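Example (one chain per record):
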Amino acid sequence: MDPQTQNTSLQRLQNVERRVVRVLDIAGGVMEELTNPSGPRRDLVKTLCGEFMQSIKDIQVTLREEIKSACEYRPFEKSDYNSRIANEICFQKLQYLLSQLDHLQNTVDRYPSSSD
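Predicted structure:
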């Protein structure tokens, strides 16, 4: 990811952060309106809820795009990390299995054979 793309991405994420703050303000406005002693004004609540939902959708779209663009950048695609971890896990499982087989053999050896 080149520095220009990274700066643009960070700017978009900062804009998302501002929109999230705005969405929280909208939600706070709805809550205030719902606690209004004279009762909530339906038109205002409807408008604020519509604005809230649209803002959430816009935030989701932007975040999805940022995630996709981040996934396109794969600096470690030639890394063998995943293979090494998978091999290490298999090795640990085999060690555990061998220890269980040893315990089983010890248990079998403690009992006299019934063919005697």
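Caption: The mean pLDDT is 85.
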